[in-house]
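Sat 14:20. Reprocessing the chain from the morning session after the first attempt stalled halfway. Input below, unchanged.
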Amino acid sequence: ILIVDDVEDNRLIAQLYLKHLPYRLSFAQNGLEALERVSRNRPDLIVIDMHMPKMSGYEAVEEIRRRERFEGLAPTPIIALTASALREDAERSLAAGCTIHLTKPISRERLQRAILEVTPDVADSTGGVEPGETIYLKRGLQTLIPSFRANTLRDLE
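Finished this time. Tokens:
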């Protein structure tokens, strides 16, 4: 799974949420990095924020879809995961080529359900929550609180 988000905390949350799935995770900080990673090693799934510097998720998804059409490849499932919650935002994500549009904040369960919707071949291999997984997740999320506060204050300024 390629996780594309310009905010490090969001990438870390995704990593915590998806740790137990049978995928290797890779990360990109913007649409340009995402295109580089997709060109080098095509992922099974992309989870992408739509508002990023250098190249937005919308632009990156449109370019990924253009390349897939040009090369005759099946479309890679792409989940838009963004703070944009308006219907117009969802329509724009889908028009760009996303498979599903989800909004932040998101629960681990909702993200996992979306992944299983677009990659049903892993449905039987994800299993449930491992013993200690909830504690691991809570501790991991707690470590992000100071960074989240600092980033929120910076964003408000």
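The two ends are 33 Å apart (CA to CA).
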